[in-house]
Amino acid sequence: MQSALAHQWQRMADGKAQILERVGRISPEARAWGPADGGWSAVDVVEHLVLVEEGVAAALAKEPSPERPRVLGAGGRFPFWLVRVVLLTGVRRIRVPVDLVVPKGGVTWEALTGRWNDQRARLERWVTEAPETVLTAPRFKHPIGGWLDVRGALTFTADHLVNHLRQIGRIERGLTRSRE
Questions:
Q1: Residue 2 in contact with residue 124, Cβ under 8 Å?
Q2: CA distances from residue 10 to 16, 135, 154 in whole angstroms, order as listed
Q3: What is the pLDDT of residues 20-65, one digit of tens each?
């Protein structure tokens, strides 16, 4: 893997490991617990993360269509940097911008972790084997941040994990309060 991508890939690996370790410590029954306000359970968060990474990987691997050029919008990279700030600081919660990545439920913990591992391995193979020209071209369109190259897509994915680590923390605190 190119050194320009290695840092973001490591952030993704670290974030995934932290999520799986923290959610794995929660009892199987409690993993399905969600806040009374209809918020997500810990398993819902993991399913969301798997769905997002599957979508990012599919978009990166998809060949661009000549009929639909992939170009930066008028705002350039500003929308992406704004998304990054929100994800990394947690200053504001972002609602899921597309229904495709909303958890559907009914997936076992084992199935989710297996799916995430398989998907991550496929993405790593693709990133490792992709030619330089593909890595620096717009490949993934974030619904808010706009078109991103591979490095941008990996950066978003790593930042997204950081954001959901905070959510796991809120769920953990909610579980503790619900037992009191």
A1: no
A2: 10, 17, 10
A3: 999 999 999 899 887 777 789 999 999 999 999 999 999 999 988 7
Q: What's the burial of 100, exposed, middle or buried (CB within 10 Å: 0-12/13-18/19+)?
A: exposed
CATH code of residue 174: 1.20.120.450
Residue 93 CB: number of other CB atoms within 10 A?
9
Three-state DSSP state, 157: helix
- Please name which of 1, 120, 108 lies closest in space to residue 49, comparing C-alpha atoms: 120
| Domain count along the chain | 1
Separation CA 2–CA 126 (nearest Å): 12
pTM above 0.85, yes or no: yes
Structure confidence by residue, pLDDT tens digits, 70-105: 776 666 678 888 898 989 998 888 888 889 999 999
Q: Which domain holds residue 54?
A: 3-179
Task: Report how far residue 87's alpha carbon sits from residue 109's, in angstroms, rounded to the nearest whole number.
Answer: 25
In this structure, the chain runs to a length of: 180
